[in-house]
Design brief:
The complex is a heterodimer of chains A (about 210) and B (about 100). Chain A is built from 14 helices and no strands. Chain A is mainly alpha-helical and about 210 residues long. Classes of the chains: A mainly alpha (about 210), B mainly alpha (about 100).
């Protein structure tokens, strides 16, 4: 629902908004791309920012691939559900059959819920410009990103990466067009990278939602 | 942004994202990612989420600004520290932003 409101506020039609939720189906990347669009950034910046965020779907695919057995067309269809929660739930199951089942149920549920909520948000509050600022709805967006970031901050290397990303984005804002600060911040990943996984392994957690 | 550009973003993001999602299930199966790529996919979201927090809190139309959203972000941080559910985190931020703006 938050995505529906955010996207229409950024100037997208309800159709475009819903198409994002159906065809991209990756919450954080959708928010990132629409944030860039709303700030008047270039299309390429929006795409790159979104794709960098969704690079993690590649890792989820590797984790889930052994469980997703079946004809090619089924695997192709199932892959669209490859987002945080279904992959995490699937990976937590003791055997491949249960993993596939958990992944599909969670994924289908999330897909339907996400799309219905998007439509409601997009149609309930179209052209909501003043409402968005008067009700403080623009304050909800940073909260969503902070909540996504939060569990990662427990690991030292993730924390360093986040700090570097924030600093780079802050420094780039006055000098670059909208969208580029976010893309540029990806370089911040190098900061966490240089401190090898040693400390990540030390507390032995993976904080995927 | 024009509608054509929006559709371009939609198409680019949808195709690229799907390629990431389906790469392993459709092609190279369960072979693990090379170390460097696994580490990159693990770290990139932290850098990007942090950048998005900064940009969505402190900028308006490409300029640095300080406004009520900072108070909202503070409220969100407090809610997260207390392990509040996501809905509560968002509502705390929204309500605080609205309140700070009205004052």
């Amino acid at each position: 629902m938050a995505f529906g409101i955010t996207a229409t506020d950024a100037g997208l039609s309800p159709w475009e908004t819903t198409a994002f939720s159906t065809f991209v189906f990756g919450g954080s990347a959708q928010f990132a791309a629409v944030d860039v669009i709303g700030d008047g950034g270039a299309a390429l910046s929006a795409i790159v920012a979104g794709l960098l965020l969704n690079l993690r779907c590649l890792a989820y695919g590797v984790v889930m691939a052994p469980a997703l057995v079946g004809p090619r067309w089924k695997r192709a269809l199932w892959s669209q559900l490859m987002v945080d929660q279904p992959a995490a739930l699937g990976a937590a199951q003791p055997n491949p059959d249960l993993a596939r089942y958990a992944y599909l149920v969670c994924g289908a549920y999330l897909f339907v819920l996400w799309n219905v909520a998007t439509v409601v948000g997009a149609i309930a509050l179209p052209d909501a410009g003043d409402v968005v600022t008067d009700w403080g709805l623009d304050g909800g967006i940073p909260a969503i990103f902070l909540a996504l970031l939060w569990p990662r901050l427990r690991q030292p290397d993730q924390r360093r990466t986040a700090l570097a990303g924030a600093a780079i984005a802050f420094a780039l804002v006055p000098f670059t067009p909208a969208g580029l600060p976010v893309v540029g911040a990806a370089i911040g990943a190098a900061a966490g990278w240089r401190s090898r996984p040693a400390d990540a392994d030390a507390d032995g957690e993976t904080d995927r939602p | 942004m024009t509608s054509t550009a929006t559709v371009a973003v939609l198409a680019g993001l949808a195709v690229g994202t799907y390629a990431f999602k389906a790469a392993a299930p459709l092609t190279f199966g369960a072979r693990p990612l090379p170390d460097w790529l696994a580490r990159l996919t693990d770290l990139l979201p932290a850098a990007l989420f942090a950048a998005l927090v900064v940009v969505s809190t402190l900028t308006h139309e490409g300029e640095l600004v300080a406004d009520a959203r900072i108070a909202g972000l503070g409220a969100a941080a407090i809610a997260l520290e207390r392990q509040a559910p996501l809905v509560v985190v968002i509502l705390a931020s929204v309500a605080t932003t609205a309140l700070a703006r009205a004052l």
